Amino acid sequence: KKNKKVLFGLELFFDPTVFLYSESQFGRTEVIDNTRNPDFVRKFSSFFKLNLFFMTNCSLFGDFLGQTFCTLGEIIGSTGGRVERTLSGIPGKKCGVIILTAEELSNCRDIATMQLCANKLDKKDFFGKSDPFLVFYRSNEDGTFTICHKTEVIKNTLNPVWQPFTIPVRALCNGDYDRTVKVDVYDWDRDGSHDFIGEFTTSYRELSRGQNQFNVYEVSGGSLFVTLLSFKVESEYTFVDFIRGNPSQPTSLHYMSPYQMNAYAMALKAVGEIIQDYDSDKLFPAYGFGAKLPPDGKISHAFPLSGDADNPNCVGIEGVLEAYFQSLRTVQLYGPTNFAPVINKVANCAAEITDGSQYFVLLMITDGVISDMVQTKEAVVNAASLPLSIIIVGVGPAEFDAMEELDGDEVRVSSRGRLAERDIVQFVPFRDYIDRSGNQVLSMARLAKDVLAEIPDQLLSFMKSRGIEPRPALSTSPLPELHRHI
């Protein structure tokens, strides 16, 4: 909702586009020509700061219109998943309003390719025929409609045949095959005031029947008919499908060979046996991150390997190994790989006991891939003020640049301008301690030294920062207990 702008005596209409960005993400809608009330087709998944710009038809540069700030949570938590925000940023001017809507995406990953044509269009242009195009809308639960696709404009015709187009099924109906799909027919005008010709409704289920008598639609407001010429559905593969681990394949670091332990199990056993002696009860809460869980395939980034959310404890390292192998048989490994949920879970435990009587150590075993670096840095910075240390063991042949960055030996980890209060992360590449065949730990003593190298200083730095003194030497009370999480 914007005003026209006068420049050099010429009245201009603007072509708006929205730029969306957060600390780690950036996106941009398409440009919509000559309109005061743009309805953008392109969708985004998770943005926090929204900026709206104009792209003018007389300049290579965009004119700033205004901005607003919000989170995805604010949109989802609002009534109907819809937020209307006033734009600001230009002193003394009303910048208009932007409407934001959000809906949880279904797991449907099919993509549909279709082609349509029309005949008997009314002649709309005084000096020619019509310039028709179609606009597709998905219906929402509250009865409103969300734009999901626009066809190209076919110039100067009364019998247009539009090019085939491909659209994700979840964009068309969000996995609900009977959800109403509305299609508007317009005649394109250069000044943006496109003439509305009529509309018709259908559904994914109807469209999926392909070309037949049911998919010839009479458009409201006249004798125009739109015909579905073809419809095809295919499964869409994602990047994750190609890179996620499959324990049944020998190429996976999680491969369960009958002859030797896999890389994760080797690292878990070698490192776990070193540090388990510092825990008195030998009960280790153990979590996995990055998997679809039975029975409904829900993705989790902090699930108990034991399968019991109320009791994630495993008895000894052997118990952890047993739970790990059992989880490989029951869950489906799945990306992305997010570190922050596990770090935050253990940090919440550490935050409950800050009197120095307990100190927590989180052992994370990873192949080096990390999908939430920004959130992980923030989790580390927040955890740096707690009685907590993090040991990251890298397995496999990947580069571990991200892990080295989290280690913070050279540059202290920071997030949103805040430096971590202290260094709490120690990274160890496990490949440095195995022989060429990848079977045996070369030096348990050297591995132990490197794994535990920073823990004493990290514990002492926390105690000193809180003014906590050790118990008297003659006391029969045990030393502060190290709680190990895996």
From TrEMBL:
<dbReference type="Pfam" id="PF00168">
    <property type="entry name" value="C2"/>
</dbReference>
<keyword id="KW-0106">Calcium</keyword>
<dbReference type="InterPro" id="IPR037768">
    <property type="entry name" value="C2B_Copine"/>
</dbReference>
<dbReference type="InterPro" id="IPR010734">
    <property type="entry name" value="Copine_C"/>
</dbReference>
<dbReference type="GO" id="GO:0005886">
    <property type="term" value="C:plasma membrane"/>
</dbReference>
<keyword id="KW-0677">Repeat</keyword>
<comment type="similarity">
    <text>Belongs to the copine family.</text>
</comment>
<dbReference type="GO" id="GO:0046872">
    <property type="term" value="F:metal ion binding"/>
</dbReference>
<dbReference type="InterPro" id="IPR036465">
    <property type="entry name" value="vWFA_dom_sf"/>
</dbReference>
<dbReference type="InterPro" id="IPR000008">
    <property type="entry name" value="C2_dom"/>
</dbReference>
<protein>
    <submittedName>
        <fullName>Copine family member IX</fullName>
    </submittedName>
</protein>
<dbReference type="InterPro" id="IPR035892">
    <property type="entry name" value="C2_domain_sf"/>
</dbReference>
<feature type="domain" description="C2">
    <location>
        <begin position="79"/>
        <end position="217"/>
    </location>
</feature>
<dbReference type="GO" id="GO:0071277">
    <property type="term" value="P:cellular response to calcium ion"/>
</dbReference>
<dbReference type="InterPro" id="IPR045052">
    <property type="entry name" value="Copine"/>
</dbReference>
<keyword id="KW-0479">Metal-binding</keyword>
<dbReference type="Pfam" id="PF07002">
    <property type="entry name" value="Copine"/>
</dbReference>
<dbReference type="GO" id="GO:0005544">
    <property type="term" value="F:calcium-dependent phospholipid binding"/>
</dbReference>
